[in-house]
Amino acid sequence: MRLVGRLLVRWETLLVIAIVGVGIWSVTLSPFFLVRANLLDLLTPYVFIGLMAFGLTFVVIAGEIDISVASTLAVSVVTFAQLFANGVNVWLAALVGLVVATALGLVNGLLVGILNLPSLAITLGTLAAYQGLAFVILSGEGVAEFPTRYTDLGGGYVWGNQLPIALIVLLVFALVLGVVLHATRFGRYLFAIGSNSEAARLSGIPVARVRVTIFMLSGLMAGIAGVVYVGSFGSARADAAQGSLLDVVTAVVLGGVNIFGGAGSLLGVLLALVLVAELRNGMQLANLGGDTQNIVIGVLLLAAIVAGNVIRGIEAHGFPRLELRRSRREVAAGQRAEATTFPNSPKGR
Amino acid sequence: MTALAGRLRAQHLAEAAFRLRELGIGVALMVAIAFFSIRATNFLTAGNWQDIAKDVAIVVVVAIGETMVILTRNIDLSVGSIVGLSAFVCADTLAKHPGLPLVLAALLAIAVGFGLGLVNGLLVVVARIPAIIATLATLAIYRGISFQVTNGQAISAFQLPDRFLNLASTQPLGLPTLAWFALVVALVGAAILRWAPWGRDFYAIGSNPGAARLAGIPAGRRVVTAFALCGALAGLGGFMWAARFPNVDAVAATDFELDVITAAVIGGVNVFGGSGSVLGVVLGAVLVATIQDGFTLLQLSEFWKMFFNGFAIVVAVALDALVTQRLQEALRRRRRAEVLEQRYAEAGT
Predict the structure, then answer these.
(1) Is residue B123 a contact partner of residue B138, using CB atoms and an 8 Å limit?
(2) Calpha distance A137→B301 (Å, rounded)
(3) CA Rg, chain B, in Å?
(4) Which residues pair with A164 in a beta bridge?
(5) Is the Cβ pair B137, A246 closer than 8 Å?
(6) For residues B88 and B252, is the Cβ–Cβ distance under 8 A?
(7) Where exactly are the structural domains of chain B?
(8) Residues B168, B178: contact at Cβ < 8 Å?
(9) Average per-residue pLDDT in chain A?
(10) What tens digit of pLDDT does each residue of B140-172 get?
(11) Segment A300-318 mean pLDDT
């Protein structure tokens, strides 16, 4: 346990070092990077990604995956926009959007938790189905002109017009969900299920119900991300957040969440989000296009998993290759010895 | 004697389930054809069927590669990006060197795809990254490379030699040339999966990776092979894509992986690996293409197709899981009966 704790500390320390490193690189690119306003605003366009990543963190720690989050966000956003455009009060419309998002999560949850279907294939299916649904609800055109009282949620500022409200939303959710994940019985259940779902079931954890709950949570977080998304970008379209799945998954995996389930921390995911945001911001300062950025983020995602595998491997077995070679040699030596000393020894010896 | 008979019966049961599956797709296809021919006046014309055949051809070629990957209990989400990149490389080369033999152009596209697929395989096997994450990352990376390679430019039909465009427009023996490609790939693919020892290994690995390894199957090498072949077939798909849709740019074949995976999954390839047939995949591709073509003729929105794809994946996965469960239960019941029978017989003597 102590080792795992130390490892987590080390992983998060690595993230902080990386954040400082990318920060220094960004300073060399632009003198405006180190301005307080810019630093505070750095995360604002990525808050919706962070909120989705928080939801996904719960799912991945429990050993499942939900790749339909960005599509869920899209459905939630267009439902909200369509209602608003038809004269429904903006807050009520937003609430309906959240309910819809949670319901879509529930669909995933029932299919995975109750029918015991593989979350990978199911959420790949709902990824397409929900994205199509979003376009069907709001075909092609976008809705804009939301009241500022609402858009302030994503794009407004407080405290002398400097502190983005979106940042506060992100930190509040990080705190609340961090407590839920790390300090409640429900949170511990997730780690238990992710480590060994059969053992968790046998020790009386309601595995099916927890699975349904996490997918609902993931849907709800996608809905909340949608509320912030519309706030910060000021418009709602069916292709909202398309292509953000890569960033969401990268934030979760880079945050040290074990992709095979059973380990991870919300603090790590938050730090990884900061790193991804900072990296994209830096690449923009360096005039790199979105698609070049995607290559870098994709490589980062792969590197994060490899690093996690290597560290876990060393944790569990020491340096695996050296050991493999030694044991093979030992086995070979043993066989040779056996062959020379007991040429006719019976098998059962 | 009874044990052998039981095993034979069990095999019959499993085979019956497969036949039932293919029969089910056939019935669904008949229903779809009947529905669309009543609703859409020009559905049953020869020209429309030629169009469907061309669409099916590309999906079939790529889906057979995807099937090999899914059989080993993995998935490749990057095939759309591979098709796009190899289509552009192939079209670009043909535009610059109009005299190039088409065989070489095809080999070039296949080589590009093979290389990209090999990278996927190595990431999954050597770096031990879960296939869904690895190929989600390479989906973004390969698409990013596409943007780098195209540099914002597109190849247009008039830049390409007629010999190449004829692949899509000529119909030897009444079937489009592209469909002949698909037929050959399907026959070779079916032969490999049925008779080649390494093709059978794909099934063994997907059914039970641990047991396959213990049985001496080089599982890692086979999985790399499956990914590399999938990439190569996606490359061939890219060559065909460029002939069918000669205006190629960086976003060509975006989301095509959904069509491919839908065809494979509807066609009875189990997402848990270990079962699936080329015949099923071909039928699945025909069903998907027919329904999508019908949607187009009925002037339904493009996005209903996306919804249909996702919905079909979910339904097919759910049905498969249900049938597998029933089958396993039936087999278990039989085995129990056999054991009891044997005990009675022993007690009798």
Answers:
(1) yes
(2) 11
(3) 22
(4) A157
(5) yes
(6) yes
(7) 2-348
(8) yes
(9) 83
(10) 999 999 998 888 788 888 888 888 888 878 878
(11) 81
Strand partners, B156: none
We find that the CATH architecture of domain A2-318 is: Orthogonal Bundle (1.10)
Start-to-end CA distance of chain B, whole Å, equals: 17
Average pLDDT over every residue of A231-243: 80
DSSP-assigned letters across all residues of B63-112: HHHHHHHHHTT---TTHHHHHHHHHHHHHHHHHH-TTS-HHHHHHHHHHH
| pLDDT for residue B6 | 55
pLDDT tens track for A3-51: 555 655 578 888 888 888 888 888 888 777 777 777 778 888 899 999 9
CB contact under 8 A, B137 and A245: no
- The length of chain B in residues reads 349
Is the Cβ pair A302, B312 closer than 8 Å?
Answer: no
Per domain, the residue ranges of chain A are 2-318
Please list the helix, strand and coil fractions of chain A in percent, rounded to the nearest 5, in that order. 75, 0, 25
What pLDDT shows up at residue A342? 44
> Is the CB of residue B164 less than 8 Å from the CB of residue B243?
yes
CA distance B124 to B114: 15
Q: Find tokens 């088409």 and name the residue.
A: B102
pTM confidence score: 0.85
Q: Which amino acid is at B279?
A: L
Contacts of B70 in chain A (CB under 8 A): none
For B269-283, letters b (16+ CB in 10 Å) and e give: bbbbbbbbbbebbbb
**Structure tokens belonging to residue B126:** 């050597």
| Shortest CA gap A37–chain B (Å) | 31
The fold of B2-348 is: ABC transporter involved in vitamin B12 uptake, BtuC (1.10.3470)
